[in-house]
Amino acid sequence: MAKNFSELLKKMNPERRAKIDAEVKKTLAEMPLQELRNARGLSQVMLAEALHIQQPAIAKLEKRTDMYISTLRSHIRAMGGELDIIARFPDGDVRISNFSQI
To answer: Is 37 part of a structural domain of the chain?
Structure first.
């Protein structure tokens, strides 16, 4: 018989629950554009309309591994977000400001 996840979660020790919470946060913090669009509750058609382009262009964009920063920025803005470019170093992170006006 299937068990309710919340019931299983209640039975787990706090250490195990914390580990699961950390994994969930990590999974939600990193995802491809298509998954991000889906998580935001948007279809390709809805996003295409917001960007004033055709739906096949969204499908093509989501499969790309290389694109202009301006293209990615407009895609993210159409989903209601903002894009920041961050360089990560052992001694700290730096937000790259060159691209903020694109």
So the answer is: no
